[in-house]
Design goal:
Largest sheet: 4 strands, mixed
Strand order of the largest sheet: 3-2-1-4
Radius of gyration: 12 Å
Number of domains: 1
Shape: globular
Order of helices and strands: EEEHE
Distance between the termini: 23 Å
Length: 65
């Protein structure tokens, strides 16, 4: 990654015992998207796969609380 690298989206993840709250700000849009990932590792893996399909070959920034 270079200092001038741009991101397709900024994503915040807030994990609790049974779910992960997701906030996604796509850089090309002004609207904040919010969703919930429920379940274990399989559900998170499916979410990551969907994220990769949505932003193919692009960098995203993720912050985990």
């Amino acid at each position: 990654m270079t200092q001038n690298q741009s991101y397709a989206a900024f994503i915040g993840l807030d994990k609790s015992d049974k779910k992960i709250n997701v906030s996604l700000q796509q850089c090309a849009k002004n609207k904040m998207e919010r969703s919930i990932v429920k379940g274990g590792a399989e559900a998170l893996h499916a979410w990551v796969a969907a994220l990769c399909a949505r932003f193919p070959g692009q960098a995203v920034a993720i912050c985990l609380e």
